[in-house]
Amino acid sequence: MQPNFFQITLPLALVFILLFVLWRIGLRKIKTYYSPILGKIEVLKKYNGEKILTTNSYIQGISTEKNNVRQSYWFCVAEQTALFCQNIKNPQILMLGLGANTIPNIINKMNPKIHQTIVDIDEFIIQACREFFGLDKLPNHKLIQGDVFKLVEKKNSFDGKKFDTIIVDVFIGSPPYVSIESNQPNFIEKLLPFLKKDGMIIFNRPGHREEVRKESVELKKYLSSHFKKTALFDIKDPRGFRNSIITGQIKRSFS
């Protein structure tokens, strides 16, 4: 006798619920914010001391004192940035999306000489990072509270600066949580004038489903029309995340 649909799916659903409950039990809520832009923002603390920032229960970033951060997409982005900037005098980077200040903190540990201009729209994300994720202790940075999509419309948004690296990690408060608009050609075309000719751009995209991984491959193909060197990193975090990191280096000349 073949098992029916419910005989198969019900035990799996119960296992998933149990795992989720156990995961939540292992977390202690520290503070909750309510943002009109992103929704419910929470700071949680794990049994091992690691802090987590979530929006509507989706993880946006973590604290950086634990070694397991090295297996994350945040570390991959920071490492690619630090490697690219290691031989640049007074390197300047533009970070679009603050999260839990995870990437800026790791970058600073790798190379404190890198000056970071960080943009985030949400005052409560910024407040959480100041209270729990060391934002005010981060040296050599400038914070801009603003809408990335409006800022790129103005040539003087960043004091006329061009950057060695631009990191695009713009999150939103609802699925798919990473801003799809920030990965589209229309936005990228407006962003590229802020990047130095020999600079690097980095995009974070979700990688949990095959269809979104294919979209990341398409983004890499698009970037190859603007950059001489592109790469795609498939990051499988043991926490259960999977992300695609796409990079482009050295702009092509169209003259």
Could you describe the 3D structure shown?
This protein is α/β, with parallel strands linked by helices and 255 residues long. It folds into two domains: 5-62, no CATH class; 67-251, Vaccinia Virus protein VP39 (Rossmann fold). The chain has helices at residues 5-25, 73-85, 102-110, 123-132, 148-151, 185-191, 210-223; strands at 27-35, 39-46, 51-55, 58-62, 92-96, 115-120, 141-145, 163-168, 195-206, 227-236, 242-251. The chain has a seven-stranded mixed β-sheet with strand order 7-6-5-8-9-11-10, with helices on both faces. α6 links the parallel β8 (163-168) and β9. α2 packs parallel to α3 (102-110).
What's the structural blueprint in terms of helices and strands?
Elements: H1 5-25, E1 27-35, E2 39-46, E3 51-55, E4 58-62, H2 73-85, E5 92-96, H3 102-110, E6 115-120, H4 123-132, E7 141-145, H5 148-151, E8 163-168, H6 185-191, E9 195-206, H7 210-223, E10 227-236, E11 242-251
Parallel strand pairs: 5-6, 5-8, 6-7, 8-9
Antiparallel strand pairs: 1-2, 2-3, 3-4, 9-11, 10-11
Name the features.
single chain; 255 residues; Rossmann fold; seven-stranded mixed β-sheet; four-stranded antiparallel β-sheet
Name of the CATH first level of the largest domain: Alpha Beta
CATH superfamily of the largest domain: Vaccinia Virus protein VP39
Low-confidence stretches: none
Number of domains: 2
The helix content, as a percent range, equals 25-40%
**What is the residue-averaged pLDDT?**
90
Major sheet details: 7 strands, mixed
Shape estimate = globular
CATH topology of the largest domain: Rossmann fold
Q: Give the class from helix and strand content and strand pairing.
A: alpha/beta
Give the radius of gyration. Answer: 19 Å
Number of strands: 11
Q: Give the strand line-up of the largest sheet.
A: 7-6-5-8-9-11-10
Please give the alpha-carbon distance between the first and last residues: 71 Å
How much of the sequence is in beta strands? 25-35%
How many separate helices?
Answer: 7
Q: In the CATH classification, which architecture of the largest domain applies?
A: 3-Layer(aba) Sandwich
Q: Report the order of strands and helices.
A: HEEEEHEHEHEHEHEHEE
